[in-house]
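Quarterly update, task 2.4: iron/sulfur cluster-bound model.
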Amino acid sequence: MSLTAALVERAAALGFNRLGVLPAGPARRLDAYLRWLAAGMHGEMGYLARPDRLARRRDPGVILPGVRSMVVAGLDYYTADLPHQLAADPARGRFSNYAWGVDYHEVMTPRLEALAAWLRAQAGGETVSSRVYVDTGALLERDHAEAAGLGFTGKNTMLIDPRRGSWFFLGVLLTTLPLDYGLPAKPASAVSPPQPSCGTCTRCLAACPTAAFPAPYVLDARRCISYLTIELKGWVPRELRPLMGNWVYGCDVCQLVCPFNRFARPVGETAFYPMDWDAAAPPLLALLALDEAAFARRYAGSPVRRIKRARLVRNACIAAGNWGSEMAAPALIALLDDGEPLVRGHAAWALHRIGGPATQAALSTALATETDNDVRRELAGG
Ligand code: B12
Ligand code: SF4
Ligand code: SF4
């Protein structure tokens, strides 16, 4: 058996659902990436535009001198559909599927490292260097994954496996070893419409709650709920808050509507299953009541811990404002005294949405003592 065929078997034994191998080189659609950056669509994710990172995206040899091959692995995470009555319940906050269980970085990275160690061991006495990345590398993972034959790029910018949909993570292993390349990387000019493709479908573009797609295959991250709830550290633009519904961590709408995801099968990987439905869509009142200790306990090992308590409660305040129920008012009024201005300000916004004499009185009382100008603006409703 060739080394590459054995590698594919080894990856499957480690639990990966798909694997592709290609010669190391720049991403084929680097131009699209540069246009995206030039338009500012990366928002505050400044690391994506750093010149040293761009140099790496142009040439993976900057990341790993002497790199010959890229191994791209996919790991499925679809477990189940959230029952409709929970998904549509505005009293609950929704978490994106990928955050229902254990942090995928912690599941995938050790497996990629094990794959790299196995490859090194196969090389006999030869010195082999390698690097593994899940998300964090200066690499356009979806572009390389498409070139490696793992799927096609959808109009929602997701990499889609035509047989199983898009509910899978990607990871990349760079190695100085030469391998057999079943699907050689093609120059950008050769990327005529990939087969299969979205065809005439435009469901994701129409369904996006914040109209984040200025064109097919282009996502303006600044409008994407995933960016707003996870990556954006500060104030969520006021005009977007009403459009965010009850999403409090990520968003799955452009995948949920995609017909290719009808083919998704629940994974055997237990790490990605939610403990219970409250892990996927907890009551907003429970999220609003989280203090630092409860947050740390509840989200240990979950990707959610990355955004820390203040950002999650900020997101829950927005969802509570969209719920608009007086039932949320006492918890939101209590948050007007929170230590974090971000939380106080978004709680004030939610209380304005709820309205009523009691909330008005609480907002006026808080305004009398509030010193932070951003929070004062929210309390005043301006
Ligand atoms: C920054 C980032 C984000 C940003 C920006 C997303 C975006 N679409 O650009 C935000 C925070 C919004 C985000 C959201 C999500 N992300 Co994200 N994200 C990343 C990250 C770190 C970089 C992506 C990037 O460089 N974007 C810049 C754009 C320009 O590049 P691109 O997305 O690859 O877009 C390509 C296409 O648009 C294509 N293209 C352009 N024009 C044309 C024209 C045609 C005809 C065609 C065919 C293609 C095409 O070329 C572009 C360049 O390759 C990657 C990990 C990585 N290192 O690659 C994960 C990654 C893309 N994210 C991932 C996931 C799971 C998500 C979410 C589903 C999470 C969630 N549920 O909230 C959402 C999905 C939103 C969406 N529809 O993309 C997975 C995707 C797996 C997959 N099967 O595709 C990745 C690969 C992480 C991982 N390791 O698994 N993400
Ligand atoms: S993840 Fe949600 S907000 Fe972001 S592009 Fe998809 S549908 Fe729009
Ligand atoms: S919903 Fe339709 S247009 Fe969007 S990615 Fe899926 S197939 Fe393509």
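Highlight for this quarter: The longest strand covers residues 69-76.
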